Amino acid sequence: MRAVVLVGGFGTRLRPLTAEVPKQMLPVVHVSMLERVIAGLSRYGVDEAILSLGFRPDAFIDAYPGGECAGVRLRYAVEPEPLDTAGAIRFAALEAGIDETFVVVNGDVLNDFDLRSLLELHRARGAEGTIHLTPVEDPSRYGVVPTSDDGRVLGFIEKPPRDEAPTNWINAGTYVLEPSVLDRIPAGRKVSIERETFPAMVADGTLYALGDECYWIDAGTPATYLEVQLDLLGSRRGAPEVGVHPDARIDPSAQVIRSVIGAGARVGAAAQVTDSVVLAGAHIGAAARLDHAIVAEDAHIGAGAVLEDHCVVGRGQRVAPGQELRNAKVPAGS
Ligand code: GDD
Ligand code: MG
């Protein structure tokens, strides 16, 4: 089974973390988001992943020079310009010569979904496309997908206003598709699978969906990028992972609670780091306090500084000693 993995977006909601690094190459508790996505696919028999690349393709190619990730063979399809989701799928599938049923995943979704159940429903219904659905609190950030009792999709409404969403079951970003879907995607321009291709398939009655309440998160915002990591440290996803890297240096008087501290990062005397992510090589000064903060590689947080409520500090940035920031980005406006 082959899978197209969409990893070509700009990751704008995660800036400044994604100023230079594509979001799927950001670490999620010491392992790249991409590697976690591909490891999930490999469990269900995917043996080749076609990375649909746009922004900074070199970051992926450099990270996996052997052309393999989590035991899965990698192929790279680099778009000449951003083609949006359907355009990207078409481009990658044609590059790879796909002519059989294939899988597509949004590369920023982490889940415990059993892909076999989606393949089974797809085959049982003789569908042209079958998509995984998950229930969410606020569907307005997602593709909203009402279905009939047998799983036929009745509508696909991408990011509707909250009070206009007909259901809270949303597109969870994993699809099984027939190659005929590729013929529906016009060449040479941006095409959104959510806004154009899926609605056309709904009109033809060929799109099905499977709702499932397994663990699911789209890690593409600061809040969810943090949440997915705190979930891995806790008990929501099997055996808890270890947040503090063995090569991190934590002063014995510092407190690190439910947090990720990357390789070579330093946490100074009497600093307090709670529910936060500190990436490799960053430096947290003495008596600084972090609560729900994200600090990128090699950033420097001055002594006594306070970072709260989803502050995001970009790679190599400096926060002055004693500075207090809430829900801010550094550099500002990034
Ligand atoms: N190659 C390529 N080219 N990839 C792209 C492009 C493009 O032009 N645009 C976006 N992508 C990739 C992103 O990198 C990401 O992995 C995936 O496509 C989805 O894009 P997002 O920007 O993360 O979309 P979203 O989160 O707002 O919405 C999508 O995901 C939701 C579930 O997480 C939609 O599919 C929604 O319908 C869905 O509910
Ligand atoms: Mg997303």
TrEMBL record:
InterPro entries: GMPPB_C, Mannose-1P_guanyltransferase, NTP_transferase_dom, Nucleotide-diphossugar_trans. Residues 240-330 form the Mannose-1-phosphate guanyltransferase C-terminal domain. Gene3D superfamilies: Hexapeptide repeat proteins (2.160.10.10), Spore Coat Polysaccharide Biosynthesis Protein SpsA, Chain A (3.90.550.10). CDD domains: NTP_transferase (cd04181). Pfam families: GMPPB_C (PF25087), NTP_transferase (PF00483). Signal peptide: none annotated. Residues 3-232 form the Nucleotidyl transferase domain. Belongs to the transferase hexapeptide repeat family. This is Unannotated protein.
